[in-house]
Amino acid sequence: MRTFSFVLIIFSIFVNTSTRAHAALKIGQAAPHLVAPILDGSEFSMGAQAGKVVIIHFLATWCTACTKEMPILNQFYVKHKKDVIMIGLSLDRPRDRKKVSELMHEVSFPLAMLNEAKTNEFGSPDTLPLTYLIDQQGLVRVIYGAGFSDLNDNTLTDAYNATLRPKVNK
Question: All domains of the chain, ordered by start, with CATH?
């Protein structure tokens, strides 16, 4: 029984530190490294996005709030795809990959399976949906999700426009 309790405690510590890695991510911090294969066969690398505005969206096909945000994100991406890189990272189980692939046909931005990421320093969010807007310097500018703020066309457009304005040091 002691060995089982010890293993359970160690497992809990591991799960709480690895799956909640995003909790430590704050506005103004450098975006974590992420490399993930896109479902279309290409690859997304956060490191290759220097100088670009990036939106990282964590979702799942079973998440009602996620499916409500998808049209907002898609509309924004269609309007700004020349200037914005966007990726959706699905937390769906590997056996549900087909559902995620079907969703990819409904949106214009690429999707990837989080469990297939080669490098994921964002961690696995404990709340969905969760969206990060990252500026051209690679800094997290806005976090959208439960407990942070509401993602809608106005807030997303305002946040994006703010990334385009030069920062004034005071």
Answer: 2-164 (3.40.30.10)
